[in-house]
Design a protein that fits this description.
Layout lengths: L2 H10 L5 E6 L5 H15 L4 E6 L17 E2 L4 H10 L2 E5 L10 H7 L3 E6 L10 E4 L6 H11 L8 H14 L10 H12 L4 H9 L4 H12 L2 E3 L4 E6 L1 H6 L11 H5 L6 E8 L4 E8 L5 H8 L3 E2 L3 E6 L3 H11 L4 H5 L1
Parallel strand pairs: 1-2, 1-4, 2-3, 4-5, 5-6, 8-9
Antiparallel strand pairs: 7-8, 9-10, 10-12, 11-12
Helix pairs in contact: 2-5, 2-6, 5-6, 6-7, 6-8
Length: 338
């Protein structure tokens, strides 16, 4: 963001406004952490702020400070549409294309509110008046910290803000092990701890609260793991029947795809999850090195994301989706085996 844009935003926020904050559909730790972190910051200036999730999100995120104020667009559509109609500012966090929020995107597009995007994904759409877009950032939470810094308000970071932002940075960096984790990321994490984020408690809340059914589902997923050594690729499948068998809840498959990527000599991993209610196969892709799963997903599976982490979907059956996936791999043999 330019100095002129920051100055304009400071002026815009200098008096109380009606503000809506929207994360992407199926929000993860970075989406909810950045949204709620920004929520607490804006509340300090007496803005009327609502965080509006396009749909529900995992229980392991529902301890975040301010979670009880979040509106679910799917289950509170009328109330949400009223807030959007009256909004003066809409922040869109952790996504950069309105289709990423489903039907909510239509209301955002129609709204006369000023749109401000804060996001670190590749190839942003041009819908926001102010865009803070940086693909080099570890997470949107790191960007919200920087945004607060640009506004000269780091002294206003409370324990609640620090907790939310720490959560998103931790989850989107794989507990600080991904290449996107920089020295600046660690510096910010240190500052968030100084402001009251309890790193051990946050880690426990996110990672150490597994249900018996979730671990059983992980066992099922690992038993379905397949390796295609000639393309240094691994993939996992989960059918709707398997999800039902282990009482699947939103968020239970978080991180499963990384088990495939952890195998020796594997640089590309995928998980294909059947969702009969939506009549799609949801796909998560991960890679190591220069192989871009963002480009792969955009080209073949209507998705996108980052170079080494992306998502997509398929309207084919689970079996046909796997067949399509395997048939594509020869097109990328040089990239996957060099």
């Amino acid at each position: 963001m330019t100095g002129t844009e920051i100055s304009s935003i400071k002026t815009l926020l200098s008096a109380p406004k009606r503000i809506v904050i929207v994360p992407h559909k199926n929000p993860d730790g970075d989406a909810m952490g950045s949204s709620l972190g920004l929520y607490h910051y804006l509340k300090h200036y007496n803005h009327e702020v609502v965080v509006m999730s396009p749909n529900d999100y995992p229980d392991f995120l529902k301890w975040l400070p301010g979670d009880d104020t979040v509106l679910n667009f799917e289950s509170n559509t009328d109330i949400c549409e009223e807030h959007l109609a009256n909004a003066e500012i809409i922040f869109t966090l952790d996504f950069n294309a309105l289709h990423r929020v489903g039907l909510l995107g239509q209301d955002i597009s129609k709204s006369a509110a000023i749109k401000i995007m804060i996001d670190h994904h590749q190839q942003p759409d041009d819908y926001a008046k102010y865009m803070y877009s940086d693909v080099s950032m570890s997470s949107t939470c790191e960007m919200v910290y920087n945004f607060i810094a640009m506004l000269g308000d780091l002294n206003l970071i409370t324990k609640d803000i620090a907790t939310c932002l720490y959560t998103g940075i931790m989850t989107d960096t794989g507990s600080f092990r991904y290449a996107s984790t920089t020295s600046q990321t660690h510096y910010i994490i240190g500052k968030l701890i100084e402001h009251g984020a309890s790193n051990a408690q946050i880690h426990n809340n996110i990672y150490d609260t597994n249900s018996y059914e979730k671990l059983q589902l992980l066992g099922c997923a690992l038993s379905n793991l397949k390796v295609i050594p000639e393309y240094r690729t691994a993939y996992i499948t989960l059918s709707q029947d398997e999800l039902n068998k282990f009482n699947f809840k939103k968020g239970d498959t978080e991180g499963f795809v990384n088990y495939g990527l952890s195998l020796n000599n594997i640089i590309f991993a995928a998980i294909f999850i059947e969702h009969k209610q939506e009549n799609i196969i949801k796909i998560s892709l991960r890679s190591k090195g220069d192989f871009s799963v963002n480009e792969f997903s955009r080209h073949y599976f209507e998705g996108g994301g980052h170079t080494n982490a992306a998502g997509g979907k398929s309207d084919l059956s689970l079996d046909d989706t796997i067949e399509k996936f395997i048939s594509i791999l020869p097109n990328h043999k040089n990239e996957l085996t060099s």
